[in-house]
Amino acid sequence: MQTGMIFGVAMVITIVAVTAFVSGLRVRSTREFTVAGHRAGWPIVSGIIVGALVGGSSTVGTAQAAFVYGLPAWWFTLGAGIGCLILGTFLVRPLHQTGLETLPQYLTTAFGQPIRPAVAVSDSIGIFITIPGQAASAITLLTVLLQWTLPPIAALVAVLIVIYVLTGGAISAGVAGFLKLLIAFAALLVLGAVALFLAGGVAPLHQALPGKYFSLFGNGFWKDLENGVGIVLGVLTTQVYVQAVLSGRNASQARIGTLLAGLGTTVFGLGGVAVGMFMRVHESDIAPAQALPLFATHYFSPLMGGVMLGAILITVITCAGGLVLGIATMVTRDLYQQYVHPKMGDREGLLVARTVIVVVVLAAVLIGATDVLKLIINYSFLAFAFRADAMLVPLLVAVLGNRTSLRSTGAGLGALLGGMTANLFWNLAIEPGGAAIFIGLAGSIAGLLAGHALTINGKNYVEHQTIR
User: Which of 222, 187, 203, 377 is nearest to 293 (CA)?
Assistant: First the structure.
């Protein structure tokens, strides 16, 4: 590999890494580590969201999917952007005014303590499904760059993710995430613009590729709609994005940061789509996952190609780190502190959170190094839909508050378990790897009503026996 390219990659990674490390030196408590002490301005809020949202699926995965089936690859960033806009417009105030740290804590206010561990476990599983896709993207990038064998590449990816998130938590994730927003967005726009310029515009690509490549529903109407809706709703039900909202110093700052992240994310994926289509026409014999890194190495100078790949690599690393942070926060606050050591101090809390980070990263990298899902972006479609199916219905009921009577413990647990069960059944028995968003939501609504009915009947039975 040419020295100029290695230098370009190292330069971008060093800038973001130093920024994250310096900003993380201020962390002294568990609350600062998880939600930035509830004092983040809109750049930090936006950075946390972008840091965990824009990663391997938005870059390497989008280009890979566009190489395989065209414009439907845009559904991930399009859906994510729409989800952020909905989150910022309708949910920031009811979430932020609670002053809490986690989504399980918020749902507990509506459905009682029994739902808290179930929410923490289900959301952690849903988030974890996404992380191997980030690891796979980073492995692909570093394989193209370094030409090493898989074991050392996978080990390097694990180390980079752990170092990034281990120091400063939400503060470093937010500061580095906002810097990443500027660097990565510029890089993807440049890559996409160059791809269209070299192709001679959209028309030559349209002539060279099947017509379905230029339809958002070219991969099948219901499948693409399901993927898009799953991403939109998954954003509303993921700990790390809610965590970003809760980190804002006030609702206004949280709303601005969330809306900015949504607007930027909506257009971000188009660069990867353009690159994927270009490479399908001009280098159709490559592995689809390598479309983006090979475009940067083949069509840019070594230094510029290195800068571009460095921007993409740090995007993937910071995304994985942000997702891992969401899991660590829930495990620390909603499981360990709640059920193992209620009097947990800050030093112990930081130790638990950082231990969880290391364990989760190692597991995700091991899975990402395999070929469980051939398309990286499928990790995200599956994970976002799973989270939405489990959590969306309980979240909406909680937000409605006293305007609905469905705020019983049985209703919350029923909605959560019904959505998870329906999604898992569909994926395991009917359509493996599918988003199953509508099936899961139907299961969640059925579980909500059934659980509430059981709760009411149980109370009536107890009251009747007491009277007797």
Answer: 187
Residue with tokens 């613009």, as numbered in its chain: 193
Q: Count of CB atoms within 10 A of residue 114's CB?
A: 12
Residue type, 351: L
- What's the angle, vertex CA 402, arms to CA 244 and CA 464, rounded to 5? 130
User: What is the DSSP secondary structure assignment for residue 248, as one 8-state letter?
Assistant: B
Backbone angles phi, psi at 457, to 5 degrees: -65, -40
Name the DSSP class of 59.
Answer: T
Dihedral sign, Cα of residue 427, residue 430, residue 435, residue 441: negative
Domain spanning 3-377: which superfamily? Sodium/glucose cotransporter (1.20.1730.10)
In angstroms, rounded to a whole number, what is the distance separating the alpha carbons of residues 124 and 453?
A: 28
Own/partner pairs for 193-199, CB < 8 Å, 24+ apart?
A: 193/271, 193/274, 194/299, 194/300, 195/271, 195/274, 195/275, 195/277, 195/278, 195/295, 196/274, 196/278, 198/278, 198/282, 198/299, 199/274, 199/277, 199/278, 199/281, 199/282
| CB-based contact 44:36 (threshold 8 Å) | yes
pTM score, two decimals? Answer: 0.86
User: Which of 333, 375, 380, 378 has its CA nearest to residue 353?
Assistant: 333
Angle of the 376-400 helix axis to the 221-236 helix axis, nearest 10? 50
Phi, psi (deg, nearest 5) at residue 167: -80, -60
DSSP β-bridge partners for residue 248? 40
Nearest in space to 207 (alpha carbons), one of 281, 271, 272: 281
Virtual torsion, Cα 147, 149, 154, 156, nearest 10 deg: -60
d(CA 352, CA 340): 11
The residue ranges of every structural domain in the chain are 3-377
Q: Tally Cβ neighbours within 10 Å of residue 35.
A: 27
Residues sharing a CB contact under 8 Å with residue 423, sequence separation 6 or more, in sequence order: 385, 386, 389, 390, 436, 439, 440, 443
| Other C-beta atoms lying within 10 Å of the C-beta of residue 164 | 29
- Per-residue pLDDT, averaged over 6-32, amounts to 67
Among 23-37, 57-71, 161-175, 405-419, which stretch is predicted with the lowest mean pLDDT? 23-37
Side-chain-side CA neighbours of 467 within 13 Å: the count stands at 6
Q: What three-state secondary structure class fits 344?
A: coil
Tell me if 349 sits within 8 A of 30, measured CB to CB: yes
Task: Give the tens place of pLDDT for each residue, 275-302.
Answer: 999 999 999 999 999 999 999 999 999 9
Could you give the CA distance from residue 11 to residue 17 in angstroms, rounded to a whole number? 10
Cα 288 to Cα 61: distance, rounded to the nearest angstrom: 9
What residues does 71 pair with on adjacent strands?
none
The helix/strand count (H/E) of the chain reads as: 20, 0
Q: pLDDT by residue (tens digit) across 429-459?
A: 888 777 789 999 999 999 999 999 998 887 6
Residue 19 has pLDDT above 70, yes or no: no
Contact 57, 76 (CB under 8 A): yes
